[in-house]
Amino acid sequence: MLGGLRRRWDAYKYRFVPWLALNLRRKRRTLRYVPESSQDKIISDEDVFETLLKIFKALFINDFSRQAHILALLPEIKCTVYRKHEPIFFQSLGNPFIFRCIDGVLIDGNDKGLSRSVYRSCSRRDQLGPFQMSDESWLTAALQNPLAVGQYVNNCSHEKAANVCYQEFDVPGYFPVELKQYLPNIVYSHDIESHPRCVVLVTLRDIKQGEELFSNYYTVVS
After folding, report:
1. Model confidence pLDDT, tens digit, residues 32-54
2. What is the pLDDT of residues 108-132, one digit of tens each?
């Protein structure tokens, strides 16, 4: 019983504000600081957009090997995207895969339980005729987008410095409809006009084959 409670606490404590306030000072090495939210981006949105297009076009024509030189650039967090006013309480219980964006948008990258059901329901709701508006394959063992693994990257530590960082990207409305089937993101509410929020991982240095990825779980805007 105590072991179960400990696992639940370990999954929840990163969203418990008093715990964060007490522990962030002791974890300065694992924090990422930016002077303001507008300076949070390592590369431009245009570069993210062009890279996603290259990768998704390669997936579309089944020639992913031609884009091997950019595979280390943009792993993605697969998720359901919630705006600040939308309900996520029950989905968040025991869920270690909730990502909070700078503007308060919440991203649920869990592939199990209620989170899984919500994502699948929203994805099928938004399907446009034969065109899927998001990727459901990450809920199965047969991934069609092998980069949809961003939420499994571990936090950096005093021994292991970050070699990638998270970057937020809003998918523009002119994104090709035939390529949206590879986006592992869906918005929770359909009745409000908004662009799906993606979170990509951008390398901070050259990554060697077989090297484990580490990111900063916390970005502090000063």
Report:
1. 777 776 667 889 999 999 999 98
2. 999 999 999 999 999 999 999 999 9
Q: What is the 3-state secondary structure (H, E, C) of 170-214?
A: ECCCCCCHHHHHHCCEEECCCCCCCCCEEEEEEECCCCCCCCCCE
Say what the alpha-carbon torsion angle 33, 156, 137, 70 is, to the nearest 10 degrees.
70
Token pair in block for residue 114: 């209620």
> pTM score > 0.85 for this model?
no
- Alpha-carbon gap, residue 108 to 209, rounded angstroms: 29
Query: Which residues contact residue 116 at a Cβ distance below 8 angstroms, ignoring those fewer than 6 apart?
Result: 110, 139
Burial class (CB in 10 A: 0-12, 13-18, 19+), 190: exposed
Which phi and psi (to 5°) does residue 62 adopt? Answer: 60, 45
Residue 64 CA to residue 54 CA, distance in Å, equals 9
Strand-strand pairing, 197-203 and 106-108: unpaired
Distance CA 49, CA 169 (A): 9
Report the pLDDT averaged over residues 74-99. 86
Centroid of chain to Cα 147:
11
